Amino acid sequence: SSVADSEVGNFCQSRLCFHFPGPIRPKKIVSGNRCAAQPGIFRLTTFCQNFRCTRRTAAAMALRLFRLSQDVVTPLIKRNCSVSAFELQHKNPVARKVEKIPKAQYGGRHTVTMLPGGGIGPELMSYVREVFRFAGVPVDFEIVDIDPASEGNDDLEYAITSIKRNGVAIKGNIETKSEATGILSRNVALRNELDLYVNVLHCKSFNAIPAHHQNVDVVIVRQNTEGEYAMLEHESVRGVVESMKVVTIENAARVARFAFEFAKNNNRKKVTTIHKANIMKLADGLFLKVARDIAKEYPDIQHNDMIIDNCCMQLVSNPHQFDVMNTTNLYGSITSNVLCGLVGGAGLFSGRNYGDHYAVFEPGTRNTGTAIAGKNVANPVAMLSAAVDMLYHLGHRYHADCISDALHKTIDIDGIHTPDLGGTNTSTDIVQNVLKHLAEKRTYW
Questions:
Q1: Could you report the per-residue pLDDT of 366-380, keeping only the tens digit for each?
Q2: 350-354 and 17-19 strand pairing
Q3: Contact (Cβ atoms closer than 8 angstroms) between residue 346 and residue 363
Q4: Where is the Isopropylmalate dehydrogenase-like domain (predicted)?
Q5: Of 423, 397, 395, whose CA–CA distance to 410 is shortest?
Q6: Strand 168-171 to 359-363 pairing
Q7: 3-state secondary structure of 307
Q8: Which of 69, 280, 386, 391 could form a disulfide with 350 if both were Cys (CB 3.0 to 4.6 A apart)?
Q9: C-alpha distances out from residue 263 to 200, 260, 434, Å
Q10: Fold of 99-202+349-444
């Protein structure tokens, strides 16, 4: 009686079939006739036969159930805890958003894809697992090994499938030993397939590490899928090779907006766009124009630009003038290595790769370290820092704070340094000292 006749009539005309949501599905209809095109849909005539009622009565009941079905998802969203950013990023296919992520599911644990990579990667990953196990971090690893000598991409495809399933990964640098033109760089292919359009590297000085400059605090926001890394090359005529540099408005805008949002949310005052628009007037010119247009939307954040040649010199002579750097793919690779070298080296800093739905964490400079593999001298700080970033991303802030504090005390207070930092300690010395500091905290889950 609460359903108007006009509504029932319209519903009868527009919906010959209706759907019973799982929580309210009548048992009498579960075994009834289903619509051939849509298995979850029941025909109105079947409803009438089973309940021995008229089509109008059946339509009224169906309309009530249809209305109710519109709110079936609401209680799931409006639980005591709000929807996490992980759910928005990984579970929702239309969300284009990266936030502080997420609250854990399935008993409070997360499964993360681990790609050890080549060189020092496997031993560094073993240190990550050892620290996580000791601290009781609620994370399980799905380990996927990729054979660097393989000519096929089966391992890579499985790794991509695993990341899509889990939403988050931690990786070492994946070697691609084959020089055949048909074999793509596994690292680049991974970023492109998952659309990890931005890489974030935070370079901050350690007080106890001798460096060319102290008190450096710079964030590099790097476009991650285009530019010279598009891997589009061909030999037009014998002895003449052309390589394409791809810049699109969409991706230039995504990375620029990410840089300005990062600056806004982290109380940063300036964004510097790095380019070579004086020579590549169309490609880098477009990247610079998009950055300038987006800068107008953030009047409280200062924006300037700098040519890559001059930028490298300025980084070496006066890095304190930089705050957040917005760069293309190749320029980001160059400036990342220059900046890391200035404040301590490749073994200290982590890199974060973000897309709309997935996130991958790795050492910041993406070096394989084949020459020192297995010698117990590789610096594990970068990989452990990547693991800390991953924990913040997953929402396990307490464990992340504990491990980050243990790393800080090991490097800055205890002065335990590997040879790349001018010290004499081994990789296991650093890990054992981190575990010693973790033992002083209540880190079990």
A1: 777 777 888 888 889
A2: unpaired
A3: yes
A4: 111-434
A5: 423
A6: parallel
A7: strand
A8: 386
A9: 12, 5, 31
A10: Isopropylmalate Dehydrogenase (3.40.718)
- The single residue listed with the structure tokens 């000791």 is 134
Which residue shows structure tokens 């048909």?
A: 182
Q: At which residue do the structure tokens 């964004």 appear?
A: 271
> What are 289-311's pLDDT values in tens digits?
999 999 999 999 999 999 999 99
The Cβ of residue 320 has, within 10 Å, a number of other Cβ atoms equal to 11
Query: How is residue 174 written in tokens?
Result: 């994946």
- Amino acid at residue number 260: F
Domain ranges across the chain: 99-202+349-444, 224-343
* Residue located via tokens 């040519």: 307
CATH topology of domain 224-343: Rossmann fold (3.40.50)
Q: What is the pTM of this model?
A: 0.74
- Cα distances (Å, whole numbers) of residue 327 to 220, 261, 310, 330: 7, 15, 14, 8
Q: What is the pLDDT of residues 257-288, one digit of tens each?
A: 999 999 999 999 999 999 999 999 999 999 99
Q: Alpha-carbon distance 259 to 354, whole Å?
A: 12
The answer to whether the beta carbons of residues 176 and 186 sit under 8 Å apart is: yes
Query: Helix, strand or coil for residue 37?
Result: coil
Specify which of 63-72, 229-238, 332-341, 342-351 reaches the highest per-range mean pLDDT: 332-341
The encoded tokens of residue 327 equal: 């760069």
Which DSSP category does 271 fall into? E
